[in-house]
Predict the structure.
Amino acid sequence: MRMSQMYLPTLKETPADAEVTSHKLMLRAGMIRKLGSGIYTYLPLGYKAISNLEEIIKEELNKKGAQELLLPALQPASLWEESGRLENYGPELMRLEDRHAREFCLGPTHEEVITDLVRDEVRSYKELPLNLYQIQTKYRDEVRPRFGVLRGREFIMKDAYSFDADEKGLNESYQQMYDAYCNIFSRCGLEYRPVLADTGTIGGDDSHEFMVLADAGEDIVVYCEECDYAANLELATADSKVIAQDEEAKELKVVDTPEVSTIEDLVTELDLAAHKMIKAVLYQVDEEPVLALVRGDYEINEVKLGNILDVVNLELAAEEVYQKLDTVKGFTGPVKLEEIKIVADELVMEMSNAVSGANKLDQHYLNVNPGRDFKVTTVADIREVKVGEDCIQCGSQLKQTRGIEVGQVFKLGTKYSKALEATFLDQNGKPQPLVMGCYGIGVSRTIAAAIEQNHDEYGIKWPKALAPYNVELLVLGSGEVMEQAEEFYQQLKEEGIEVLLDDRAERAGVKFNDADLIGAPIRVTIGARSLADGKVEVKLRQTGEEFKVEVEEFLAKIESLLTDSIY
């Protein structure tokens, strides 16, 4: 493509509302333009990167026997009522009515639609397994769209759905897609980790997220360097050691703690370690109060707690709940708190002579002992894992890093097939619910994640598989210089190499700056001085390495560089 003919509006300055690196560079490099909050237009350069990723996805999924189709983005709300998700999905579901007052939604995902399709077509076990996928725009009414295309209200996604006759078949389909995802993200040149994950509003059993490791990530990945354990912080567990408390149970005692309502303040006020405190947080679940307890040196993991309580979204209790229970926010504790469900972390149950709120303003209990002083409804792991805790697989110390979720795979089981009565006839002629899996990749998000991992202060450093153009020819001059550039341009095009020819009548500084900003893996500078010696200058964007190449060896050298995995 000739830059003189290309729609490529690069920017010298970063727009004020751009926050993370990928957002800044995608705007400056002329890849995207904002239409509204969380809504972006993809310009030619940005769409080429997306198309490259889509081609990789299709190749790897097709190898696994998946078949591409296209489902409607506009979905009848009645389907979501059948599955039970119309209300449970929450305010992120984009809803609308047609002129006849019939309710619809814009698809954030397509479990209901694909199940409805297959239940009317698949009749026998002989038609299974089946794996169908699409690449399509999705819609979610994000409460706070941000970070450009990393969290938008409209985004491009690949979603696939597998249908099997039994759990064994689902496990095989899941592994096939897991392997395909590893191939996809490896081909993209990304540093990533598959991690254990929560299933959220999608539902089902096992799930893995694929995380691109980057500082801009909204998720925290807990991992072990000595084995393959990795999990989203929402689901991570650790082999936490009980802190020895070989004490005789002492008499329960009330102490005055004026204006001391946090664990940090209690540590100072009472001169006791945080692991001697019981942290209590009051929630409201389906209009019922629930008290969650963890040791004072931990935080409550609300995803784990939500899974225990079988709810997707937890709400902190309102002031009237505290009043009804005759307790005080900041001083709430489990002792003598009547008629309430209490969920305690397993480490809490090992505590002795602990400190907890006394349910009175400016008062705490000393010498609280679980079992003696309060009873719990449920004991479970509801704490948030900390750096340095022991790995549950090998005992080594756990670490944390930030990650951008670019894909997730789920074992749905029969959640949707039972709800929508999608059955097949087994070998005995008996109807059975289809066993499903679903598999998503955030296409537009992956492009942004790639930029988060591959950039410097000057611009993007594209991995070659995603690069809109693998080679940029930067022309400094006219006449013989332009003639040589045109010859190179035609040679590369004939070899099927994506090439960008900067033939603009711009100053050299502008061309060099734009080249670094756009980030083609290989930049070739064609100028009168080097050409007089029969050479051109080559720079590799990823490494910064620069060298000269003989004109006669140009094509062979470029082809050699593009086959090198580094570029």
